[in-house]
Design goal:
The chain is an alpha+beta fold and 409 residues long. It is built from 15 helices and 11 strands. The protein folds into 2 domains: 202 residues, Metalloenzyme, LuxS/M16 peptidase-like (Cytochrome Bc1 Complex, Chain A, domain 1, 2-Layer Sandwich); 181 residues, Cytochrome Bc1 Complex, Chain A, domain 1. The protein is 45% helix and 19% strand. It has a 6-stranded mixed beta sheet, sandwiched between helices. It has a 5-stranded mixed beta sheet with strand order 7-11-8-10-9. The chain is globular, with a radius of gyration of 23 Å.
C-alpha cells in the first residue's frame, strides 16, 4: 500500500496513507505502555489513557467526547505492554478537528484530582470484572510466571493496591519519562494529499517540545519453567501453556506466526481445534497465540474443559506437538497453511482502522512498512525445516510453563 512519512523537527512522524473512501481513519501511537512502569506504579499507563478523556486546559469531559461524536465520528483508545493508542474514524471534512483533539487530550490534559478519584473507581471495577472471568484472568497470571520479576508480566490494568496509590505527580513523571517525540507517530488514512496531512499535522504538533528517546528498555530474563495448579471456585478447568518466544526482529518470527496460525490460530480448521474439539469433543475453546514484542515475545496455548477430561486434553495436545516436531509438513500441507494465512492477512486489510494502526506500529518498530507482497513473500519463504526447528524449540515440553485453574469440589 502506498504511504508517505514526514518527520517534524521534534521527531514526531506523520504517516499519510491515501484512500479514496469518504471515511477517514487516524491514530496517534505512543511507544509507551505498561512495561515502562515500575512495580509500585503498575497500571499507570492505562490510567493515563483513561484520564486524557476527562479534562484538558480548554475542554471538559463532555466537550472532549462530543468534539468528534457530534459529527458522527468514533473515538477510542487502548493500552498494551508497549503502546498507547488513541484512534478515530470520521468523515473526510473532519481531519483538522480530529488531529486537533488528539493534540489536546494527549499533550494538554490536566488530570484533575476529582476526575482521578472517579476514574480509579472505574478501573477498580474493571479489574474486579476481569478477575471474575477465569478465561481472561489466567492469561495475566500466566504472563507473571513466564516474565517473572519483569514488568511484562504484570497486568496492564495494575492491581487494586497500585491503582489506588497513583498520584498526579506519578502521571506527569511518567509522561515526561516515556512520551518520547521520536517514538510517536500520527497516522492518517484518507482522501487527502500528502501536503494536506503535513500542513494539518505541522499545525498541531510542530510546537511540541522535543523529548528524544534515551533510555533502553530492560529485556526480561529467562524465567524458570513451572507447572502450577490453582484451585478456584469455578465450574470448568482452564489451562494455559507457553513460553517466551521470538521478538519482532527475530528471523524466525514469520515462521512462528505461520506455525501458530496452523496449530491453533484463527478459524475452525486449526490442528488443535480439529483434534481436541471436533474429533474428541473435549474442549469448546482451544487456541494458540503468539505476540512478538520489541525484545522478546510470548507463545501461549489456552483451553477450557471439564476437570475429568483435563488429563486426556493434555495428552492429546502433547501428541500433536510431537507430530509437528518429529515429522515435517509436506509441501502440500505447508502451502495450504500459507494460503490460509495469506488470505486472512489480505482480508484483514479491509479493517481500515486496524490497518492504519498496524502501519503506524510498524513504522515505530522497523522504521519502515512492508507492503502486502513483501509480507506474503516472507511467508512463502518459510520452509518445512524452519517449522521443525521452531517447533522443537517453542513446543519442547522442557521449555513450557503451564498454569491451570482447577475447579474446587
Amino acid at each position: 500500500m502506498e504511504y508517505n512519512v514526514h518527520t517534524l523537527p521534534n521527531g514526531i512522524r506523520l504517516l499519510q496513507v491515501p484512500s479514496a473512501s469518504a471515511i477517514s481513519h487516524a491514530c496517534i501511537i505512543i511507544n509507551s505502555g505498561s512495561r515502562d512502569e515500575s512495580e509500585e506504579k503498575a497500571g499507570l499507563a492505562h490510567f493515563i489513557e483513561h484520564l486524557i478523556f476527562k479534562r484538558t486546559k480548554k475542554r471538559n469531559t463532555n466537550q472532549i467526547l462530543n468534539r468528534l461524536e457530534s459529527v458522527g465520528a468514533d473515538l477510542n483508545a487502548y493500552t498494551t505492554k508497549e503502546y498507547t493508542c488513541i484512534h478515530a474514524s470520521f468523515l473526510n471534512p473532519y481531519l483538522d478537528r480530529t488531529l486537533e483533539l488528539f493534540n489536546d487530550i494527549v499533550f494538554h490534559s490536566t488530570f484533575p484530582e476529582d476526575e482521578m478519584e472517579k476514574e480509579k473507581g472505574v478501573i477498580l471495577d474493571e479489574i474486579a470484572s476481569y478477575l471474575d472471568q477465569p478465561e481472561e484472568a489466567i492469561y495475566d497470571d500466566f504472563e507473571d510466571l513466564v516474565f517473572a520479576g519483569h514488568s511484562l508480566g504484570r497486568n496492564i490494568l495494575g492491581s487494586i493496591e497500585s491503582v489506588s496509590r497513583l498520584t498526579q505527580k506519578d502521571i506527569h513523571q511518567f509522561i515526561k519519562n516515556n512520551y518520547h517525540t521520536d517514538r510517536i507517530v500520527i497516522a492518517v488514512l484518507g482522501n487527502y494529499s500528502l501536503n494536506k496531512v503535513i500542513k494539518t499535522g505541522s499545525k498541531y504538533y510542530s510546537e511540541i517540545q522535543a523529548n528524544p528517546y534515551t533510555v533502553t528498555r530492560a529485556a526480561p530474563g529467562k524465567a524458570a519453567v513451572v507447572n502450577e495448579v490453582l484451585n478456584k471456585p469455578i465450574q470448568q478447568a482452564h489451562a494455559v501453556l507457553g513460553t517466551q518466544a521470538y521478538s519482532l526482529h527475530h528471523p524466525y518470527k514469520t515462521g512462528l506466526l505461520l506455525l501458530n496460525n496452523l496449530l491453533g490460530g484463527t478459524g475452525m480448521s486449526s490442528i488443535l481445534n480439529l483434534q481436541i474439539r471436533e474429533k474428541y469433543g473435549i474442549a469448546y475453546t482451544i487456541e494458540t497465540g503468539y505476540s512478538p514484542l520489541s525484545d522478546t515475545g510470548i507463545f501461549t496455548l489456552y483451553f477450557g474443559t471439564d476437570k475429568e477430561k483435563l488429563d486426556k486434553a493434555w495428552a492429546l495436545i502433547f501428541k500433536e506437538f510431537k507430530k509437528i516436531k518429529d515429522k515435517p509438513f509436506t509441501e502440500a500441507q505447508l502451502q495450504k497453511a500459507k494460503n490460509k494465512f495469506i488470505g486472512q492477512i489480505a482480508l484483514g486489510e479491509e479493517n481500515r482502522i486496524g490497518l492504519i494502526i498496524s502501519m503506524a506500529k510498524s513504522l515505530i518498530d522497523y522504521d519502515k512498512i512492508d507492503d502486502l507482497q513483501t509480507v506474503f513473500s516472507k511467508i512463502q519463504a518459510v520452509n518445512a525445516g524452519d517449522l521443525v526447528n521452531i517447533a522443537n524449540e517453542i513446543l519442547d515440553p522442557g521449555n513450557l510453563t503451564a498454569l491451570t485453574f482447577y475447579p474446587i469440589g
